[in-house]
């Protein structure tokens, strides 16, 4: 199983995550120093079973980029969350320290649901 991260734009390609994001993630045991930004490529829609967007704007961008045969792979990341009603991951950069903590809470919740979804999919594949 492969997991990757990419943006719909290439503005920060090659750069590491924001220092604040790395610091807050590190406090929870997630080490992001090895990650470098990259832009979504057409191959991503072929290679990955799911292509997840953090917000509706990026979802729309991904849907425009995605070949018709792979449209079902493109979803909102927080559609897998179970502990909150939010459907978009907010930009943490304008919310101070609480913004980063809130985003991590949302991401952890969605990851739990995503792992369960993957388990179910693997059961059905045999």
Automatic annotation (TrEMBL):
Domain Phosphotyrosine protein phosphatase I intervals: 1-117
Annotated region (Disordered), positions in chain: 1-21
One Pfam family this sequence matches: LMWPc
Record keywords, A-Z: Hydrolase
Entry's Gene Ontology molecular function annotations: protein tyrosine phosphatase activity
Active site as annotated: 91 (proton donor)
InterPro entries reported in the protein's UniProt record: LMW-PTP, Ptyr_pPase, Ptyr_pPase_sf, Tyr_phospatase_low_mol_wt
Stored SUPFAM superfamilies: Phosphotyrosine protein phosphatases I (SSF52788)
Gene3D superfamilies noted in UniProt: 3.40.50.2300
Family per record: Belongs to the low molecular weight phosphotyrosine protein phosphatase family.
Protein name as it appears in the record: Protein-tyrosine-phosphatase
Organism, as annotated: Hahella chejuensis (strain KCTC 2396)
């Amino acid at each position: 199983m492969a997991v990757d991260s990419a943006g719909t734009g290439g503005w920060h390609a090659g750069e590491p995550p924001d220092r604040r994001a790395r610091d807050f993630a590190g406090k929870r045991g997630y080490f992001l120093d090895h990650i470098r930004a990259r832009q979504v490529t057409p191959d991503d829609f072929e290679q990955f079973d799911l292509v997840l967007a953090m917000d509706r704007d990026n979802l729309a961008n991904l849907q425009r980029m995605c070949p018709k045969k792979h449209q079902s792979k493109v979803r909102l990341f927080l559609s897998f969350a179970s502990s909150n009603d939010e459907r978009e991951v907010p930009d943490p950069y304008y919310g101070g320290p609480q913004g980063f903590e809130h985003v991590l809470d949302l991401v952890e919740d969605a990851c739990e649901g995503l792992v369960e979804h993957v388990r179910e999919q693997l059961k059905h594949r045999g």
